[in-house]
Design brief:
The termini are far apart. The longest helix has 30 residues. This protein folds into two domains: 31 residues; 190 residues, Sandwich (Jelly Rolls), CATH 2.60.120.260. The protein contains three helices and ten strands. With 228 residues, it is of the alpha+beta class. The strands form two sheets. The protein has a five-stranded antiparallel β-sheet with strand order 1-4-9-6-7, with no helix packed on it. Strands 2-3-10-5-8 form a five-stranded antiparallel β-sheet, with no helix packed on it. Bound molecules: calcium ion (2 copies). One calcium ion binds next to strand 3.
Length: 228
């Protein structure tokens, strides 16, 4: 019996100790949220999972799939280079150093509209430089569409302030567009000085002017800040 009590006692003690450790860990987490730590580095690609390589491709390009680090609506998906039906080839994938997969806007919704993917990027530790006009932001991407259809691939970068309000109008951001690329993945880029009060950027992958399938393909997404 004493051995049993001892055993129970050790379990109780260990559970108290575990509780204390867990509480301490919670305190550490609560005083050091990830977003408050560190300074966003210059000349570094800030996009996570920029090339759609972090998760699997969908088995069917008509079916949406969860994409690591991106928030997507239903049908937005990841397609493998060389998938049948007119998608960019494996040759094109290697030509652009695009790995095995790319983002695709996917099957249209019932109303004909296409789904988006969004990623949020906080810009930390540069507030005074941004407000003085000394931080430039550079957006780059590979964009493709199908054949000569009017489907258009659009990447938008929006600026948000500390209160999560859009900074300036829609013209304050950056936009990349491509259409009728004939399944090639065109390199596009744009840059500008970050506007005052910008503290976060949103990258949105979208399709416009589509016919049938939302043939807007994206790969090698890049967002960098540099000193200006
Ligand atoms: Ca890729
Ligand atoms: Ca189409």
């Amino acid at each position: 019996m004493s051995a049993l009590r001892g055993s129970v006692g050790r379990r109780v003690s260990w559970s108290i100790v575990s509780g204390v450790i867990a509480a301490a860990a919670l305190v550490v987490v609560s005083v050091l949220p990830a977003d408050a730590v560190g300074t966003t580095p210059f000349s570094t690609n800030l996009v996570k999972n920029p090339g759609a390589e972090a998760g699997p491709a969908s088995n069917d390009p008509d079916v949406g799939i969860a994409i690591p680090n991106w928030e997507t609506l239903d049908n937005f998906t990841v397609v493998a280079y060389g998938t049948g039906g007119g998608f960019p080839s494996t040759t094109e994938g290697s030509h652009i150093h695009g790995g095995n997969q790319f983002f695709s806007a996917g099957e249209p919704e019932g109303d004909g509209g296409c789904d988006d993917a969004i990623q949020f990027i906080k810009i930390k530790g540069h507030n005074s430089d941004i407000d003085a006009g000394h931080v430039q932001i550079i957006l780059k991407a590979r964009l493709g569409t199908f054949d000569s259809q009017t489907d258009t691939a659009v990447v938008t970068l929006q600026f948000r302030d500390a209160n999560n309000e859009q900074v300036g109008g829609s013209s304050a951001g950056l936009k990349l567009k491509a259409t009728q690329t004939g399944q090639t993945m065109l390199q596009k880029s744009a840059s500008k000085i970050m506007p005052r009060h910008a503290r976060e950027v949103r990258i949105i992958l979208a399709a416009t002017n589509t016919t049938g399938y939302c043939d807007a393909y994206f790969d090698n997404m890049s967002v960098e800040i540099v000193s200006a």
